[in-house]
Design a protein that fits this description.
The chain is α/β, with parallel strands linked by helices and 270 residues long. It has one domain (10-267): Rossmann fold (3-Layer(aba) Sandwich). The chain has helices at residues 22-32, 43-48, 51-57, 71-85, 100-103, 113-136, 164-186, 209-219, 227-238; strands at residues 10-14, 36-41, 63-65, 89-94, 140-150, 189-195, 249-252. Strands 3-2-1-4-5-6-7 form a seven-stranded parallel β-sheet, sandwiched between helices. The termini are far apart.
């Protein structure tokens, strides 16, 4: 049940591809809670997805294409978003990640460095690019909220997650560093949410993903958090109830991150 906790708030949501996307579920819930926002994704992803249907469902939200690796695209997104929304931004969700090495099946010990550079740029450095643009344009309202989605591979080794683990580590570091500056100047909070393995278009491309989802479900005392539950958490972080939470990596994984052992794990696959 919606409670209107985002009523009057305005934002930008990256990464909604289809109804399996966390960003898609965040968009639906933000709309239900009274927010107005702009949707954005890479031009190629927009052609592959169903974002027009989402926009129509969310009060005919405007869509702005953005290649997050390009400064000019990021600038255009922020400028046009402020024009469309009629002023400064209350919240931003960065739900962006891509690895050509994973797509091409390259192991971590045999990475293509051009691909790796693109992975780091799109999946992590783009978050700095986004915040730099928002910061320089003074585009965020005081006490606003900026979030990015991450994964526990930033802290633990999951061999088939490849250099995306390095990208998530960099993403979390950028969150802390830029979070300090945004907090000092505008009381804007910057955080990452470390989500359970979630059956999305991007996640499903990782080798052995289905087996690991089952493993995480068995190990986590509360079970895996799904995309809709993650969206609920994101909405709470956009709301005024979390004004003093910043520079944090917030685990939303049913307790997986702090569980060392569970007998249930031995039954996976049986």
């Amino acid at each position: 049940m919606a409670n209107g906790i985002l009523k009057g708030k305005k934002g930008i949501i990256f990464g909604a591809l289809n109804d399996k996307s966390i960003a898609w579920q965040v968009s639906l819930k933000a709309h239900a809670e009274g927010a107005e926002f702009v949707l954005t994704n890479a031009p190629i992803a927009m052609r592959m997805g169903e974002i027009n249907n989402l926009a129509a469902t969310c009060g005919n939200a405007q869509i702005i294409p953005c290649d997050v690796s390009k400064d000019e695209d990021m600038q255009n997104l922020v400028t046009k978003s402020m024009e469309i929304l009629g002023g400064k931004i209350d919240f931003v969700l960065h739900s962006v990640g891509m690895s050509m090495n994973i797509r091409k099946g390259k192991s971590y010990t045999e990475l293509d460095y051009k691909f790796m550079h693109d992975t780091l740029d799109i999946s992590a450095i783009s978050f700095h690019r986004l915040m730099k643009t928002l910061y320089n344009d003074d585009a965020m309202k005081n006490e606003g909220s900026i979030l990015a989605l991450t994964y526990i591979a930033a802290q633990r080794v999951f061999p088939d997650y490849s250099e995306m683990a390095d990208a998530k580590s960099l993403l979390e570091s950028i969150t802390r560093s830029f979070g300090y500056h945004f907090g000092k100047r505008n009381k804007v909070r910057v955080n990452t949410i470390s989500q359970s393995p979630t059956v999305t278009t991007a996640g499903s491309g990782v080798k052995g993903f289905g087996t690991f989802v089952d493993y995480a479900e068995a190990l986590s005392p509360l079970g895996n958090a799904n995309a809709e539950e993650c969206a609920d958490y994101v909405i709470s972080m956009f709301s005024d109830y979390t004004k003093k939470v910043t520079m944090q990596n917030l685990f939303h994984d049913g307790g997986f991150s702090f569980t060392g052992f569970s007998e249930d794990v031995f039954n996976v696959g049986k």
